Structures are given as C-alpha cells and as structure tokens.
C-alpha cells in the first residue's frame, strides 16, 4: 500500500502546478490594476481560491482570493468558480491540500483548467508578495460579539477598535467594578487597574467585581479574576499602588482612555493635570448618597476638571462614601454610564459627554444636564501641556490645609 | 419666585429641603434670600468678603453663572438655581 506522501506525490504528477511567481505575474500584474492592485479575477477570469481552514484564511490570504475550505470543496466551489471552463488556481499553506483539491476538481467535478500553487502561501510570502490581512474576528469572537456586530454604530470596525483599545481604570471599587466587568464583556483588549486596597466585607454591597470568597485579597487581583471569568482574552495590567505625582505619568502613558472612579479630591486633581499633559481623555464620575455626577474631560477638546471645579470644597462639605454612605446600586448606574462613554470614545460612535455634566438623582429619578465651559484662565488646560511641571501636578489652592483636614 | 435646588451635602442646613423658593432679581440676591431663610447655608455659600466661595458652583438653569454675570446675573421667576458641589466619592 502506498502511504499518504506517496499518494500526494502521485496526485501532483496528474495535476498542473504553478509557481507563485507565475501566479503573481499572471493574475496580479497583467490581470488587474496597475502593479498588482488585486482583482478578484485575473486574465481570462482566473479565480484564485484559498482551500485552507477559516482561521488560516482569516490570518492572511492572497489579495482577492476566494475562500472554500477543502472540506467543503464539493459543496461550495461552484459558488466561487461557477464557470468550469475558466482557469482556477488553488492554494493552501504549503501546496499539498491544494494539490488534492485540484485533483478532486479536475477528476470528479469536471473543472477543465485547474492548477495548484506550489509551496502555498508560505512560498508566496517568502517571495515577498503582498497578502491581505483582513479585519477579521475569530469564529469565537464573531459569536461572542455578535450583538455588537449587529449594530452599525459599532460593527466589525468598532469591535476591532475595542479589541485594540487600552483603558485604564482608576479604582476597582464601586465605580470601577461594573466598568471592569462590562468593558471586559465588550471586548476591550487591555484593562489597566490601579488600586492599592484589599477586598473588605463592607465593599460587597456595591463593588460587584469582588466576592465573599476573596475577602482580604488585593482588589486588583480580585478584579482580574472577575474579568477573566467573563472574557479570558482581556489583558489585565495590575497596578497595586496609590496614584501619586511620582508614578502617575508612567502609569497612564500609552492608555487610550482613563476612567476616573477614585474616592478623593487630591487624586482627581492630580489625574486631571497628568491627563491634560498627556492629552488622554478622562471619563469621570463621582457618587455620594443617592447622587451621581458624570462628565468626559477631553483635554483641549473640552473643559478639564479644573475648569469645572477650580478648587475642592472644604472637608466638611466633601464627605466620602465611607463617611456618608452610598446607595449600593448607584455606582452601578454611574459606572455603566462611564463604560458607555468609554466605548463611544474608543469607537467614535455618538456624541461624547464632553463639555456637559450629567447629574443623576436617584430618589427623584431625575437626570439633569449642565453645560461645562473651558475656562480661558484655567491654571492647567489654558496652557501648553509641555509647560506643566511635575511639581504643579495635583496642587490646588489651600492644598496643604485640605489634605491636613481630610486626614 | 426662582427656585434654588439644594445639593445633598447642604440639605442638613436647609432642614432637609431639596428645593427652596427664593426672592431676588439677581443670582446674588436669590442666594442671600436662601441664606436668610436658612442661615446655616451662608458660611457655605459665601466667603468673608461676601463673595461666592470658589468651590461652590451655581448654575442658572443649565449655565454656570461664572460665564454669565456672576452674582449680578439676572434671574426671573421661571429660573432654577442649581447649587452644585464637587463630589469625590467613587
């Protein structure tokens, strides 16, 4: 009995094989537009068919190639190459599967002019010819994100942007928890998380990324577990630290969007100044009791946090959630409104909340929108970002007194 | 009369009132009216020199009075004054 290699050798003797150089010359130079602009059909209606599997085709393929996996050859080839008298060139990864497919088409399906490309796409690429790397999702991703793909404002292009996006979450607490979960579910490629705290029982009333069996665990680790349970493809970058002037520039560099869910004023001012310097948009929310505030601070496209709040209130007018309490659902509402704004910024869909402040008052079930203007005298964003120094970042009037009072 | 909306952090100074009807033809007069009805709000709204504290944002309807005419901004009966504190909770 001949072995598999013998069979392939014998079959190759019975079919026509063409070198990639010839395919490139005939199909992509003479046949199509100038200098190889890829036509899907070359001279005399030549059809190029990739017979590899879906995932191989999605990785890259010859420009304009049609795709019929070898396993579906008999049932689908007539859609790709309806005229059996016209020339068809098949290729695969290295030239074996396409030889077998060419044999089938020639001997069983009655194609009159079939050839298999020697060495497959591997040799094609070795010769330095172009391939198409399509915007494509894996089969699993197409299924996972199918409800995004169905809405035109997101679609394939928007989903690819989400998969490429790097979003930094400041805080993995009340606001950060739902944001992390939903952005992971939405397919944001990289989620950075900054938090120096550990999970406490009093967090679980609202911080839904954490759980009873993770009490005492660093929040960044607990959030990573929750994210990975939803979407294992998300890359999680953990910063178990407190943001300060010495580390903020290094941490935020390279992120596309920053989500502010921090629980104190000094860090909010610090973040504002650093984000203006780096021109990274910040989706900001804050919560207390039954009230929430939300805005997008997009440096130089709209106001910054200091334009809205030039100086923080004194400590007695700036209670924290720890001191005054918060409805557990409220950070869910506000956090998910932040997550929506993140997705809009990444995909370019819709109108971002730049220059607008959205207030939610849960008891009255009211939303109020206020205008926020750029302050022409803003101590930070009225200036050239390069002129903002490390020493200025996060400083505001009465900073020392404020920090002493708030402990 | 214009209506002043009171944020949660100031409601302990207004006996829990969320909205207070105020008198006055300008933002400044309206806020003084609030302070006279609820004296505890005065120190929170105004500095020693009678100016609006920098950390207090006041909106006439949806516009910050700082980009209008500040305390001199005229108000009518139909207007709502929103007193807005910064919040830092997360």
What does this structure look like?
- Chain A has 407 residues and is α/β, with parallel strands linked by helices.
- Chain A has helices at 4-14, 20-30, 54-59, 73-80, 96-107, 120-126, 139-144, 146-149, 155-164, 176-186, 219-230, 248-252, 265-278, 305-308, 321-324, 330-347, 399-406, and strands at 16-18, 47-50, 66-67, 88-91, 114-117, 166-170, 190-194, 235-239, 257-260, 282-288, 291-297, 356-361, 366-371.
- An 8-stranded mixed β-sheet of chain A has the order 8-7-6-9-10-11-12-13, sandwiched between helices.
- In chain A, helix 10 links the parallel strand 6 and strand 7 (190-194).
- In chain A, helix 1 (4-14) packs across helix 5 (96-107).
- Chain A is elongated.
- The N and C termini of chain A lie far apart (85 Å).
- A 5-stranded mixed β-sheet of chain B has the order 2-1-5-3-4, covered by helices on one side.
- Helices cover 17% and strands 21% of the residues of chain B.
- Chain B is α+β, with helices and mostly antiparallel strands.
- The interface between A and B is medium-sized, with 45 and 23 residues.
Neighbour order of strands in the largest sheet of chain A: 8-7-6-9-10-11-12-13
How would a textbook summarize the main sheet of chain B?
5 strands, mixed
Low-confidence stretches of chain A: 31-41
Which spans of chain B have pLDDT < 50 for at least 5 consecutive residues? Answer: none
Query: What fraction strand of chain B?
Result: 15-25%
Query: Which sheet architecture does the biggest sheet of chain A show?
Result: 8 strands, mixed
Rough outline of chain B: globular
How much strand of chain A?
15-25%
Total DSSP helices of chain A:
17
Category by helix and strand content of chain B: alpha+beta
Give the C-alpha Rg of chain A: 29 Å
Largest Cβ-defined interface: A-B, 45 and 23 residues
Helical segment count of chain B? 2
Give the overall average pLDDT of chain A: 90
The percent of residues in helical segments of chain B reads 10-25%
- How many strands of chain B? 5
Q: How confident is the prediction overall: mean pLDDT of chain B?
A: 91
Q: Using DSSP, what is the number of strands of chain A?
A: 13
Distance between the termini of chain B: 36 Å
């Amino acid at each position: 009995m001949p072995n598999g290699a013998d069979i392939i050798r014998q079959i190759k003797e019975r079919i026509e094989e063409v070198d990639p150089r010839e395919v490139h010359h005939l199909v992509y130079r003479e046949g199509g537009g100038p200098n190889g602009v890829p036509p899907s059909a070359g001279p005399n209606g030549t059809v190029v068919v990739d017979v590899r599997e879906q995932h191989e085709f999605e990785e890259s393929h010859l420009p304009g190639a049609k795709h019929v996996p070898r396993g579906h050859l008999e049932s689908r080839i007539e859609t790709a190459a309806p005229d059996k008298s016209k020339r068809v060139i098949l290729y695969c990864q290295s030239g074996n599967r396409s030889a077998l497919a060419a044999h089938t088409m020639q001997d069983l399906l009655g194609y009159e002019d079939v050839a298999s490309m020697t060495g497959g796409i591997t040799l094609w690429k070795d010769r330095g010819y172009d391939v198409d790397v399509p915007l494509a999702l894996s089969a699993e991703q197409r299924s996972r994100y199918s409800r995004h793909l169905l809405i035109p404002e997101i679609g394939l292009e928007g989903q690819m942007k989400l998969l490429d996006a790097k979003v930094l979450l400041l805080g993995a607490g009340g606001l950060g928890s739902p944001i992390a979960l939903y952005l992971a579910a939405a397919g944001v490629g990289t989620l950075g998380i900054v938090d120096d705290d550990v999970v406490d029982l009093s967090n679980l009333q609202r911080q839904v990324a954490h759980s009873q069996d993770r009490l005492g665990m660093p929040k960044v680790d607990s959030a990573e577990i929750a994210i990975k349970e939803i979407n294992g493809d998300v890359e999680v970058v953990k910063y178990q630290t407190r943001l300060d002037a010495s580390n903020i520039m290094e941490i935020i560099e390279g992120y596309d969007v920053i989500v502010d869910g921090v629980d104190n004023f000094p860090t909010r001012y610090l973040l504002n100044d650093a984000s203006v310097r780096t021109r990274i948009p910040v989706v900001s929310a804050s919560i207390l009791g039954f009230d929430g505030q939300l805005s997008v601070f997009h440096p130089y496209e709209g106001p910054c946090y200091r334009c809205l709040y030039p100086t923080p209130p004194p400590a007695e007018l700036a209670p924290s959630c720890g001191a005054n309490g918060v409805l557990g659902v409220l950070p869910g509402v506000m956090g998910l409104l932040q997550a929506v704004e993140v997705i809009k910024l990444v995909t370019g869909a819709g109108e971002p909340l730049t220059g607008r402040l959205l207030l939610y008052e849960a008891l009255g079930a009211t939303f109020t929108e206020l205008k926020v203007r750029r302050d022409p005298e803003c101590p930070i964003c009225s200036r050239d970002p390069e002129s903002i120094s490390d020493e200025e970042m996060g400083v505001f009037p009465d900073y020392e007194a404020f920090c002493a009072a708030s402990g | 009369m214009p209506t002043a909306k009171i944020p949660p952090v100031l409601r302990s100074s207004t006996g829990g009132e969320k909205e207070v009807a105020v008198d006055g033809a300008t933002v400044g007069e309206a806020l003084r009216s609030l302070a006279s009805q609820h004296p505890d709000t005065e120190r929170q709204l105004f500095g020693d020199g009678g100016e609006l504290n920098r950390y207090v944002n006041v909106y006439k309807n949806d516009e910050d009075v700082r980009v209008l005419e500040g305390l001199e901004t005229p108000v009518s009966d139909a207007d709502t004054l929103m007193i807005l504190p910064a919040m830092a909770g997360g």
